[in-house]
Amino acid sequence: MARSGQDIIEFGITLLREHTGDVSADVAEAFKLAGVKQSELTLAALKSPFGGDKYFKPAQLSVTAMNYPDSEAPPDFSCVEPGEDEHGLTALEKYGSFVATNANESVPVCHLFKTAAAIQDCLLADGDSEKPFLLVSADFSGIQDTVYTISSKGALKTLRARSFMLELLTEHIVYEILHSCQAERHAIIYSGGGGFSLLLPNRAGVVTAIEGYREVLNRWALQEFSGKFFIALDATPCSAASLESEEDFTALRQSQSESLDKLKRQKFLKQLDELFTSTMPKQLTARTECQITRRDDLLPEKMRDREKGTFMSSVPHERRDDDCYTWLSESCFHQFRLGDKLIDAKKVYRYEEKPDKDGYLTFKGFDDQDVYYSIDENEQKGALAWQINSWETSSPTVLYAQYVRKHKHLSPYAQGIELEAIRADGRKVESSEEIKNDTATFAGLASSSCGADLIGALRMDVDDMGNKFSKIGSLPELSVKSRMLNLFFKVYLNEICSGNLGEEDKPTDIVGKNYQNRENGEKGRNVSVVYAGGDDLFILGAWDETAELAFDIQRCFARFTGGLIDSEKKGCGISGGLTLHQPKFPLYQMAQKSGEAEHVAKSDKDTIYGDIEKNRIALFYDDSKYQRRLKMKTPERYRYMLSMTWSLSGAFLIPLMKTYRECGSLKSQDGRQVLEIEKFTYQTIEKWFAVIEKYQESYMLYLPTMARVMKQVEDNKNMDADLFEKLISYLYTHEESKKNWISHLHIALNWLSFLRRTK
Length: 759
Known about the structure:
Layout: H1 5-18, E1 20-22, H2 28-33, E2 40-44, H3 88-96, E3 100-101, E4 104-108, H4 109-124, E5 133-141, H5 143-148, H6 155-180, E6 188-191, E7 195-201, H7 206-225, E8 230-238, H8 240-244, H9 246-265, H10 272-275, E9 303-305, E10 327-329, H11 330-341, E11 347-351, E12 360-364, E13 370-374, E14 384-388, E15 397-398, H12 412-424, H13 442-446, E16 455-462, H14 465-470, H15 475-497, E17 527-533, E18 536-542, H16 543-560, E19 574-581, H17 587-603, E20 616-618, H18 623-631, H19 634-637, E21 644-645, H20 646-662, E22 664-669, E23 672-677, H21 682-698, H22 702-715, H23 721-731, H24 745-756
Parallel strand pairs: 14-15, 19-20
Antiparallel strand pairs: 1-2, 2-3, 3-4, 5-7, 5-8, 6-7, 9-10, 11-13, 11-14, 12-13, 16-18, 16-19, 17-18, 20-21, 22-23
């Protein structure tokens, strides 16, 4: 009897234990289609799949130990040997993600063997003989409109829950399709970042069934998200030749991508009557509509009070507008209750019947019946479970960027500000002890900043990822690159936010907050991850800590991808945008403005005639800066840069900011942290801004003005000679390599100005 895909998974476990193994004749075809040409397999060091000549150290998957490729190929594989009682796909992922084979040193054992297993199941199935494979792919449309367009009431808590909902929706749809098509989890090619791909047997009726499920999902999505969210789902039959040839596989994926795009252009085609039927709102006042999504089309029996859980239908009409009620839709109510549970979540459970507690998510199953998911503290017997960021049991694993600050993590001053803001929002709270495990609010995060009490909104995205992925020529390559990016953005990102960058690398720390050992004993930054997955992220937090975090993420990402960030064919660059906002600024506009900043970083260039150079960061971007630059003539326009390359940031911006830090000391004013400059005056900062304007108008004629300003700094009695020499090397130089620094000087001066603000 021919071996199944599950047997191939166990073959992978055996290879990890014994370091060598032979491909038997009955699975040779599956391995051939997965790119394996030899019959004898041996373990080998894993070369970075993003290009270059660096190798990962053999290691088990870990949520705390970050693994970066090094320059040498390590020969010892003893640490990736599974125990005798460890079997299955989860064990293969745990031990086989950072070690390769002699067949392809850029593909880990895990992704090679699970791809071969999926292919084998298709070959053995009683399906179409000419096209035995079915490539099933999904692409979610409208993620940003679904996640970000909510009000600021309970924003971070609800926002994270909505983000998690979409992560879990992906897992739910995958499970429903696999279960209904009698396929195993090794059929998952990739999952995350707003989509997935599966390789299933092309049995009769499967395509029709998947198309039917697509309609079920989008009817639910239309009702739940009012047309903002759409699920494009396509099933394309294919032959063995389409998987074996790189050219044919690329063409297959391109064809399916076009099918998905067509579905998105024709979304809700079968629900047009419902979309264009005019209806009166069910909630007639601003007080009774959902205070998070602003939906007014829900009946009172579908609306609940945020704090008490009371249904609106149980409250008399004349009292529903009372200030004591904060009405939310049924789904938003459960998301709000779920938000705090996500911080320390270990497992998520699936139920066929509605849970008897608050804080669950509801999706549609293959049969159009409701299915429920909940996070529970205790093990639920008989319930299907997924473990979050763990490979300790045989349960499937869900990766999720769950880093968030709690109320108790904040300083006493920030806790007090947050407590006042919560009470002002109508919530009755006696003390900080009651909310110590609650998600920190915008008010708490903003007041944790040094200087100005502002929120930093950070968006980052890998450059040209769509173009890079469109050129992938094999299933194993698609699987490993997708999983590696998810590992970075959903697992390693948690550690980066915690101040753990791996090995001896230290987090960026301008004013000396000491993120690895803060005064209150809580490590990490005062930020919360809203969304991270695929190749992008959205983070909100104390403005200064969010700005520093951007540089840590880029450094770690460059290391993780092998450091190759400037080649079109190798490696990955990453661009980002950071904007600053008042705590009460609408959340959706924070997302929009930081997205605009990210776009500026991706489309900017440093020279008049040069090509656009990505791999940049746009710090402290706002509309006024953009409008100012637009008004400038073309040559002068590039003397006022809205973004800079990461390499320039490392050579100029960060060292200059650390030098500015040496010119002052961190003071506490009524519990707030403020940087007090002692070596020069505030007027000096204003003069530096004036020098920038002079440079933009007169180019090199700014140098005499800068010389006069620097002379005044040197004459300050508090300025010592060594510090002045360091400062002048960044602000007044004729070196050709540094000539363009003044075009970016306003970014550093803005940073400094915000650090020294007293409110």
